[in-house]
From TrEMBL:
Signal sequence extent: 1-22
UniProt keyword list: Signal
Entries under InterPro entries matching the protein: Mitofissin (IPR013726)
Protein name per the record: ZYRO0B16588p
Source organism, top-level taxon: Eukaryota
């Protein structure tokens, strides 16, 4: 596998994890405790990462909500 392919693969994995965390948060209210991270720089990046997941989650919900292939139970 090329370095680029690996990078893309890791990025997609990270995005999926972030989206999963957003779904978990929306459904259960559980969220990683960012205040346990001492380093402000890393904490800032983590919160951006989680926000990115939420954006993707919201986008997916909106897309599925307006799709004829998805319904509500
Ligand atoms: C946090 O971590 C980054 C990268 O590891 C480092 O450059 C920075 O100095 C650290 N900041 C604090 C406040 O410890």
């Amino acid at each position: 596998m090329t370095v680029l392919g690996k990078t893309i693969h890791i990025s997609i994995d990270l995005i999926l994890v972030s989206t999963c965390l957003a779904g978990l948060r929306r459904n259960t209210g559980l969220t990683p405790k960012l205040q346990t991270i001492e380093n402000m720089t890393i904490r800032d990046y983590m919160s951006r990462y989680l926000n990115m997941g939420e954006s993707i989650y919201d986008y997916s919900v909106a897309t599925c909500g307006s799709s004829p292939y998805f319904g509500r139970k």
